[in-house]
Amino acid sequence: MTTPDAPVLEARDLHKSFGALVATNGLSLTVRTGQIHALIGPNGAGKSTAIAQLAGSLRPDAGEVLFSGHSVTRLDEAGRARLGLARSFQISALFPEMTALESVMLAVQAGRRHHARFWKPASADDSLLEPARQALYTLGIGHLARTRASDLAHGQRRLLEMAMALAREPRVLLLDEPMAGLGFVETRNLSAVIHALKADMGILLVEHDMDVVFRLADVVTVLVDGAVIASGPPSVIRDDPDVRRAYLSEDDAC
Amino acid sequence: MRPDALTLRRRLIRDGLPMLLLAVAPLAAMAVDAGWLVPVFTRMAVFALAAMALHFILSIGGMVSLGHAAFFAIGGYVVGIGSQHAYDETPAPLGLPGWNDMLISLPAAFAVGALIAVPFGWLSLRTRGAYFIMITLALAQMIFYLLVSLRAYGGEDGISMWWGRNTLAGLEMSDRLALHAVCLVILALAWWVLSRMTAAPFGWVLDGARQNEARMRALGYRPLAYQIGAFALSGGIVAVAGALMANVDEFVSPGLGHWTVSGELLVIVILGGLGSLSGAVWGALVLLGLEEVLMEFTQHWAVIMGPLLVVIVLFARGGVGGFLDRLNMGKRHDDA
């Protein structure tokens, strides 16, 4: 199912309003396997609302979400996750009392049909342990396996956040500002990780750091006031006059 | 789920000691000709059982129920009603013959308690925090007034089982030590089951949902079913405790379901500490023990008890279990 360029997640004409506020206004985009699709836009453009609708935690007023060509608009977040849709949260959403390893094991377990759900101790289950360790090592935090999530530094939390999302070998990854609050080195490292991941999955990346976006993205979609004003390869987007006016110019100013 | 960094010795003290006390104390009482004390210890075991069931959903699942007295009373009435019909030789509800053996009444209490806990849990779990507490309380009050209105079963006065306790597999249970042993075995059994389930994937999901429910959904879990399941299991066990209580007292009344009983169970859990299920046993020992001792001195024992509880909670944070853990801080080895 990992044919390159096959559309794996599609939004078709999504609309969402909160009272008078139109948060999503006719959003359409396609995330393909093997591609990093960046979703950018000024603050309040509706990026997080869009992610929520794709992930299934928010139901659109109108429009459709397709996963591998099948409509998942009516499927809840857990159901979409089971199909292979993973997300990381803008503000690290971890299990504070669990160790890093336990957190990722819990993520791995979510994809399993366990025959001994009620009885066998989960911590002794090698089929959870090994993939969890692997995910932590992939992100370079294998040495923190036994550290509680609440004791991790900010950058490490972001990496654990990623490890949990990756543990289930998803087919689509929604990343909501994964670099937020990271230092220069951490950002570079995480960029490398994300770049390496795209071979096996489609990635939708919401990110404020324009250097990161233009370095990583294969396709960039620009959202302003809930509507798409431009979509295309980074080189085209960079020179698009509408985008410059609506978004990049204000970014340059600061 | 929580990393268990306890050495064997600490575990023995924290988990084994209260059980040992409950096992030995009645024998000691008999030895010094104070047999009247045995039911005091049996009460402790029964309350420990109920509190442990509450502990399970509270510490792992984050569900603070102030309505567990309802299940306690339901279990008691399963015994009382069956026993009354067995004695009268009249048909019980649903046309069933009366029942007067623990092999029937205890599983029946569990089943009825768990069954009623499902809709209770489903309703309560639409809310969280203080609202959850209030809804469980409200639902329990419904059960309380329902029981008061049961004229056929004594209304407010309840049922006095003057004809005696349930039998166990046909054996008379008039011996206090025998009944105590039954309660202790069931407490140990519940402990074993609940700790297995805590460590199993089932417990992990509950624990994860308590810590971050949104994240659990994003991972592909639907925690509600697990939470309702845990609530039902908890309700069933508390009903078994109520059924045992009915046998200890040879009496059931709506008082078993009074909201203060729910409060007492919560106090036991908090007093014992949330770190380990054995906290429920410690809490029951301390609370009921204090009650008993203070009552010896004054009928206004509650005036002393209240402030004492506040002091204990303030100065022994984490309850008895937390206190024991801190005593042993120096012996902490593997932090895995």
SSE blueprint and pairings:
The complex is a heterodimer of chains A (254) and B (336).
Chain A: E1 7-18, E2 21-32, E3 36-40, H1 47-55, E4 62-67, E5 70-71, H2 77-83, E6 85-88, H3 100-109, H4 126-138, H5 154-166, E7 172-176, H6 184-197, E8 202-206, H7 210-216, E9 219-224, E10 227-232, H8 234-239, H9 241-253
Parallel strand pairs in A: 3-8, 3-9, 6-7, 7-8
Antiparallel strand pairs in A: 1-2, 1-4, 4-5, 9-10
Chain B: H1 8-31, H2 38-60, H3 69-88, H4 102-124, H5 129-148, E1 159-160, H6 176-199, H7 201-211, H8 213-219, H9 223-249, E2 251-252, H10 259-272, H11 278-297, H12 301-315, H13 319-327
Antiparallel strand pairs in B: 1-2
Overview of the structural elements:
The complex is a heterodimer of chains A (254) and B (336). In chain A, a hairpin with a 2-residue loop joins strand 1 (7-18) and strand 2. In chain A, helix 3 (100-109) packs across helix 4 and helix 3 runs parallel beside helix 5. Chain A has helices at 47-55, 77-83, 100-109, 126-138, 154-166, 184-197, 210-216, 234-239, 241-253; strands spanning 7-18, 21-32, 36-40, 62-67, 70-71, 85-88, 172-176, 202-206, 219-224, 227-232. Chain A folds into two domains: 1-84 and 170-254, P-loop containing nucleotide triphosphate hydrolases (Rossmann fold, 3-Layer(aba) Sandwich), CATH 3.40.50.300; 94-169, no CATH class. The model of chain A has no long low-confidence stretch (mean pLDDT 88). With 254 residues, chain A is α/β, with parallel strands linked by helices. Chain B is mainly α and 336 residues long. Chain B has a single domain (8-331), classed as Orthogonal Bundle (ABC transporter involved in vitamin B12 uptake, BtuC), CATH 1.10.3470. Chain B is built from 13 helices and two strands; from the N terminus they run αααααβααααβαααα. In chain B, helix 2 (38-60) packs across helix 10 (259-272). Chain B is globular. Mean pLDDT of chain B is 91; it is low at 330-336. Chains A and B meet through helix 2 and helix 3 of A and helix 6, helix 7 and helix 8 of B.
